[in-house]
Amino acid sequence: GIQVEQSPPDLILQEGANSTLRCNFSDSVNNLQWFHQNPWGQLINLFYIPSGTKQNGRLSATTVATERYSLLYISSSQTTDSGVYFCAVERVWTSYDKVIFGPGTSLSVIP
Amino acid sequence: DTGVSQNPRHKITKRGQNVTFRCDPISEHNRLYWYRQTLGQGPEFLTYFQNEAQLEKSRLLSDRFSAERPKGSFSTLEIQRTEQGDSAMYLCASSPRGYDQPQHFGDGTRLSIL
After folding, report:
1. pLDDT tens-digit readout, B19-37
2. H or E segment and range at residue B113
3. CA of B15 to nearest chain A CA: how many angstroms apart?
4. Distance of CA A39 to CAs A107, A108, B36, B104, Å?
5. For the segment B65-82, what is each residue's pLDDT rounded down to a tens digit?
6. Is A104–B107 a contact, with Cβ atoms under 8 angstroms apart?
7. Cα dihedral angle (B45, A96, B68, B6), rounded to 10 degrees?
8. Closest chain A residue by Cα to residue B91
9. Residues of A in Cβ contact (< 8 Å) with B23
10. Residue B44 φ/ψ, nearest 5 degrees
11. C-alpha distances in angstroms, B23 versus A2, A57, B43, B97, B108?
């Protein structure tokens, strides 16, 4: 089945710093999303981005589908950015592994 | 929209008992997903509905697990003869019609097996 990798697995940032999170996937996909799981366990959709670049405030994401990777940029990080960031890929026509989440990047932003 | 609602928030039960969880998706979202998440892991896909039709099931979904979505509205996930390994957070997500729509997650049901 399709493999999804994320790097780095853990990241500690000083408040105000910038960071880039990466998601690699091993096969073509139809959809890709980035999620933030906050310390209370809530999963929040950040971007739906199967290709191209999107920006939302201090966050932006780029997916290069032909090279099978996506990047999430966090600028001017804040303590509320702490949590785990997941990328998830979806394939429309498949029997079993319709949606596959990566293992996540655990981010801690310290004041 | 009131968001995806899941009940109960927590369920504690003895091994061997049956449990049922409910998910109410965002109104007019025709696509509904169930996931399971254990500590330190990303969510694992369990099953997917489009309207009332269960279109896909993960190989992780043993025959003790069954899901329904009558009338294409709310969905239930039942686990029969629960085992210790079933302890996890069970998450539901919904998305609107079309394959280019993001998923919106509920807060989950945490299952603990004694």
Report:
1. 999 999 999 899 999 999 9
2. strand B109-113
3. 25
4. 10, 10, 18, 18
5. 999 999 889 999 999 999
6. no
7. 10
8. A43
9. none
10. -110, 130
11. 28, 31, 16, 18, 9
B44 DSSP β-pair partners? A100, B36
Q: What is the DSSP letter of A67?
A: G
Six-digit token pair at A62? 């780029």
Cis peptide before B8 (omega within 30 of 0): yes
C-alpha to C-alpha distance for B102 and B94, rounded to whole angstroms: 8
CA distances from A60 to A18, A52, A90 (A): 11, 11, 20
Around Cβ A92, how many Cβ atoms within 10 Å?
A: 9
Q: Does B51 touch chain A (CB under 8 A)?
A: no
